[in-house]
Amino acid sequence: MTQNFAPVGKTALQVPILGLGTAPLGNYWSDVSEQQAVDAIHYTLENGAAFIDTAPWYGQLVAERLGIALAGVPRDSYVLASKTCLMHSPDGQPIEDFTREGVLRSIEWSIERLKIDRFDILHIHAPSKEHYRTAIEQAYPLLAELRDQGVIKAVGVGENYWEPLVEFARDAHFDCFLLAGRYTLLEQGALNAMNQFHAQNISIFGAGVYNTGILAKGAVDGVWYQYAAAPSEIIDKVRRLEALCQKHGVPLNAAAVQFVKAHPAVTSLVIGAESKEQIASTIAALNTVIPAAFWSDLRASGLIDANAPMP
Fold it and tell me: pLDDT tens, 186-222?
């Protein structure tokens, strides 16, 4: 895949259109061996997706495997993003600390286990409503200081919901947001917010574009949607999308990734993968030629927001 780079917000940092989300690489959703994880990371870097996203919240196993895979890889050859403030204690209990100390602790934890010397992007990781003020008054200023000092290149927020991102965009200067599963072929409730972020020069990293697998696997038995078994109304909608794809000879996963990529706010797609085969499938999906008639029929079908940008 040709590496097409785009700037992150107004920064000098550029990222490729495809990045790897590392959450699945440490038994997060399924049993992934160390070799499989390392092979997936190497395949990603070697095939035009030199952008890796991780987080302490994903656990020590992911961090250690990422460190193994990145050992010996020139640090300037890839962009590395991580998150702050959410971690697990040694006995597996969740830690939510959005103070300055919490930010520093999570950064130190990641650097120690990944065995790297710096991150390019740091996100505040999904603060709940009760932690919002602390995140904006303590976590953000520290990350902004690190950006101003050149220690990192961009500051963002990683979220599963778009509504908090609107507040963050209002209250501070962010370069990017990672939004998981809320602007996809199945769900466009974030459209107005996405338009706003684009107007504010905030780059969006589109994550969860397959909605936990259903837009990659289709409406099959046992498929998941948003981290749970897919409900019947979602299954029905996916079947209608599949019928439209079949009519035009378009793979469902190709429609899924290219639809999200079409929004001008989206700088990169961060796709979680368990194997190099899954990464290869997404690369093929991005490179699939989709006829204009498919997008016209999709808009006419009523299956998506009529105002959503099309490729």
Answer: 999 999 999 999 999 999 999 999 999 999 999 999 9
Catalytic residues: 58
| CATH class name, domain 5-301 | alpha beta
Alpha carbons 284 and 201: distance in angstroms, whole number: 29
CA distances from 246 to 148, 213, 240, 249, 256 (A): 50, 19, 10, 5, 14
Q: What integer pLDDT is reported at residue 29 of this predicted model?
A: 60
pTM: 0.97
Strand runs labelled E in the chain? 5-7, 14-16, 18-21, 51-53, 79-84, 86-88, 94-96, 121-125, 154-159, 176-180, 203-207, 224-225, 228-229, 266-272
At 1 the pLDDT is 54
